[in-house]
Design a protein that fits this description.
By secondary structure, this protein is an alpha/beta fold. The protein is 40% helix and 17% strand. Bound molecules: pyridoxal-5'-phosphate (PLP).
Length: 406
C-alpha cells in the first residue's frame, strides 16, 4: 500500500513553485494532476505503439487496437459494467451528455414528454436538454434544492411522473460539493418507466462507482478529473439501450457496411465512436484507473473526508467567510465560499500570490449561482495528494487577504 508521501512523489508537477512558493493545488474539481505512471504510459504509446486502430493488419495497428480495447474493458470493470460493449469513449462528460441528448433525446422524446434534471446541474447537463426539449416540444423540469443545499426528494417524487421519459442528474455538484442520492432517484425514474442518466464528472474520481447498484441506464464522466489526460471521457450505457438508439456522430469506424445510399452501424461500442479516437488518452485512462484502484477508494475517501472536514471547520472559524452548500457529511471534497466585501476573483488572484490554486467564478452553473443570490464563489477542491498543510496555507492566506482589505 502506498503512503501519502509516496502518492505525492508520483506527481512531478507538485514540485513546481509559484511566486517562489510551493504549489498548493486546490483546483481538482476543474482538472486533476497526472501521476508519472499516466504520463509514462502516454509517452510510451507514442514511443512504441502509435498507429491508427481497427484499420491495419500490421503489428503496430494491432497492438494499438488491442491496448485501446483493453482500456474499454478496464473501464467496464472499474464501474461494474457488463463489458466493453457498454463503454463508449468520448472527449469528456460534456460530449457524453450531448451524445445522449441527440441519440436518445432527439429520437425518443415526443411533444409533451418530460425531461427532469435538478437545480444543481453543470451547464453540460442543462444546456443540451434545453436545446433538445425545445426542438421536440418536450418539457424540462427541475428537482428543487433544500435550504441546506441538498436534493429535495419530496420535489423529486412530485416532479418525476408517468410523462417523464428521461431523468438526468448530477451525482456530485461541482459548485456546492453536494452528493446526490442517485440510487433513490433511479428507483423513482424506473417506477415511472423513464431512462436514468447520472453525470459522474465529480463522483467517478472520488468514490467507487457501481452502475448496477446505482440503477442507472447511463453514466458519464471525464478522464481528466481522475488523473487521466484531457480529451478522453466515458459514457456507460446499458447494452440493450445502446443497441436500439441512433448513433450521435456519423462517419468512419462506426459503420459495418456502406453503399452510396445507406449504411449499417458497427457493433458496440464502435457504433458510437466515429473517426480516429484518442488512443493515447484511452491508454492513459486505463493506467489512471489502475492507479486509483491501487491506492483504493477507501484510502482516497479517508484522505478527502479528513481534508474536507478540516477545511470546513477552519473556514467556519473565520466570521467573514460564508460557506455554500451542505454540512460535510453530505458533500464530497469541494468547498465553495465567499469572503465579505471581496470579489471571489480577487480572492483567487491573491491566493495565487501565495501559490494556492483555486477556482473563482460561476463554475459553469450560472442558474445555481443565481438561486444562491450570487454570481460567483471561490472554490477549493481536494484530491488524494492534498494534505492538511495545504489547507493551513489556504487558511493563512485567506486571513492575510482579509486583513489587507479591511
Ligand atoms: C458536474 C460536472 N458535470 C460536467 C462537467 C463537464 O466536464 P468536462 O468539461 O470534462 O466535459 C463538469 C466539469 O467541471 C462537472 O463538474
Amino acid at each position: 500500500m502506498k503512503t501519502q508521501q509516496e502518492i505525492i512523489n508520483d506527481f512531478p508537477i507538485l514540485k513546481v513553485s509559484v511566486n517562489g512558493k510551493r504549489l498548493v493545488y486546490l483546483d481538482n474539481a476543474a482538472t486533476t494532476q497526472k501521476p508519472k505512471q499516466v504520463i509514462d504510459a502516454i509517452s510510451n504509446y507514442y514511443l512504441e505503439m502509435n498507429a491508427n486502430v481497427h484499420r491495419g493488419v500490421h503489428y503496430l495497428s494491432e497492438l494499438a487496437s488491442e491496448e485501446y480495447e483493453e482500456a474499454h474493458r478496464r473501464v467496464a470493470k472499474f464501474i461494474n459494467a457488463n463489458g466493453m460493449e457498454e463503454i463508449i469513449f468520448t472527449r469528456n462528460t460534456t460530449e457524453s451528455l450531448n451524445l445522449l441528448a441527440y441519440s436518445l433525446g432527439l429520437n425518443e422524446l415526443k411533444k409533451g414528454d418530460k425531461v427532469v434534471v435538478t437545480r444543481f446541474e453543470h451547464h453540460s447537463n442543462l444546456v443540451p436538454w434545453q436545446q433538445i426539449t425545445r426542438k421536440v416540444g418536450a418539457k424540462l423540469e427541475f428537482i428543487e434544492i433544500t435550504d441546506d443545499g441538498r436534493l429535495d426528494m419530496e420535489s423529486a417524487e412530485k416532479i418525476i411522473d408517468d410523462n417523464t421519459k428521461i431523468v438526468s442528474i448530477v451525482h456530485m455538484s461541482n459548485a456546492l460539493g453536494t452528493i446526490l442520492p442517485v440510487k433513490e432517484v433511479s428507483k423513482l425514474a424506473k417506477e415511472h418507466g423513464a431512462y436514468m442518466i447520472a453525470d459522474g464528472a465529480q463522483s467517478a474520481p472520488h468514490m467507487k462507482i457501481d452502475v448496477k447498484d446505482l440503477g442507472v441506464d447511463f453514466f458519464a464522466f471525464s478522464g481528466h478529473k481522475m488523473l487521466a489526460p484531457m480529451g478522453i471521457g466515458v459514457l456507460f450505457g446499458k447494452q440493450e439501450i445502446l443497441e436500439n438508439i441512433q448513433p450521435f456522430l456519423y462517419g468512419g469506424d462506426m459503420i459495418k457496411l456502406v453503399t452510396y445510399d445507406e449504411a449499417q452501424w458497427n457493433h458496440l461500442p464502435w457504433k458510437f465512436e466515429a473517426g480516429t479516437p484518442n488512443v493515447s488518452g484511452g491508454i492513459g485512462l486505463k493506467v489512471a484507473v489502475d492507479y486509483l484502484e491501487q491506492v483504493g477508494f477507501d484510502t482516497i475517501h479517508k484522505i478527502e473526508s479528513d481534508l474536507t472536514n478540516y477545511a470546513y471547520e477552519k473556514l467556519s472559524e473565520l466570521p467573514y467567510i460564508k460557506i455554500y452548500g451542505p454540512e460535510p457529511k453530505y458533500r464530497g471534497a469541494v468547498i465553495s465560499f465567499a469572503m465579505e466585501g471581496i470579489h471571489p476573483h480577487d480572492i483567487a488572484t491573491l491566493l495565487d500570490e501565495d501559490g494556492v490554486a483555486v477556482r473563482a467564478g460561476h463554475h459553469c452553473a450560472q442558474p445555481l449561482m443565481k438561486l444562491l443570490n450570487t454570481d460567483a464563489t471561490t472554490r477549493a477542491s481536494f484530491y488524494l495528494y492534498n494534505t492538511r498543510e495545504d489547507v493551513d496555507i489556504l487558511i493563512e492566506s485567506l486571513q492575510k487577504i482579509y486583513k489587507l482589505f479591511s
